[in-house]
Amino acid sequence: MRTRLNPRQQVVVDAGRPLPQLTDPLEVELLVSAFAGLFVGDEEFWEVVVAHLAGVPSRRSGALLTALGDLLPGRPGVWAREAAREQPKPRWDLGTLRFGECWIGDRSIDAGYLTLLCGYAYGQERHALVFMIDEISGSLTRHAFLTRRVDEALEQLGQEVRLQPITSEAAHWLLGRGYDRFERRPGLGVSEDVHQTRLLVRRRIALALGHVGTNAGSTASTS
User: Fold this and answer.
1) Which end of the chain has a smaller Cβ tally under 10 Å, C or N?
2) What is the mean pLDDT of residues 154-176?
3) 144-152: Cβ within 8 A, 24+ apart
4) How far apart are CA 196 and CA 146, in angstroms?
5) What is the pLDDT of residue 215?
6) In the predicted structure, residue 199 carries a pLDDT above the cut 70
């Protein structure tokens, strides 16, 4: 018997339609982070969604449950991972994420903003997330954007600020502070990209800091 969905839950389930056809794990993360992030703190919402998907075995259900298991924090992520075990496996694997080099901008430049670039890879395909952190507002992450042109991004940033290497753990600890502040006060002004990449970034913070059991459903290695 199918679990009845409300309109918002149906929108989330429908948004997962492309997932079985995708082969790029990064595209999966971006898609799911964009549509699921709005409801991340609502356990009752996800309990119904997971129960519905568990009751309708299919490639789409398996792909969406697998992605939610990796990206949702807390109990909803656990529920999704458990339900995904009984479903078809997708072609992509978010567990193959690797951490790369991280760089931080000179704090004395750019009027109170800290620039942070964090590198990652799926297989041979590299990508990076670039963040602008407002230190005047308590290290709030104001802007976040993703690029696959990692070397070009480094070169461009190097022309604007003095970059220094930083460990992945230290970089993601800084990000965690910024996202904690944003999530405690969601009315603070941040760019739309911060909202859309929220789950994707939170997953990377959890993996980098070793909080896999509570905030992320997969492991990652450092390249």
Assistant:
1) N
2) 92
3) 144/191, 144/193, 144/194, 144/197, 144/201, 145/193, 146/26, 146/30, 146/193, 146/197, 150/100, 150/119, 150/126
4) 11
5) 45
6) yes
Is the CB of residue 12 less than 8 Å from the CB of residue 36? Answer: yes
Q: Identify the H or E element spanning 147.
A: strand 140-147
Average pLDDT over residues 197-205: 94
Q: Which residues contact residue 184 at a Cβ distance below 8 angstroms, ignoring those fewer than 6 apart? A: none
189 neighbors 179 (Cβ within 8 angstroms):
no
- Cα–Cα distance between 119 and 126 in angstroms, integer? 7
* Verdict on whether the full-model pTM lies above 0.70: yes
* Model pLDDT for residues 53-95, shown as the tens digit of each residue: 999 999 999 999 999 999 999 999 999 999 999 999 999 999 9
Q: What is the DSSP letter of 188?
A: S
b/e string for 123-160 if b means 16 or more Cβ within 10 A? eeebbbbbbbbbeeeebbbbbbebbeebeebbeebeee
Q: Taking Cα atoms as reference points, which of 168, 144, 122, 125 lies closest to residue 33?
A: 144
Does residue 205 contact residue 215 with C-beta atoms inside 8 Å?
yes
Tokens of residue 181, six digits:
């502040």
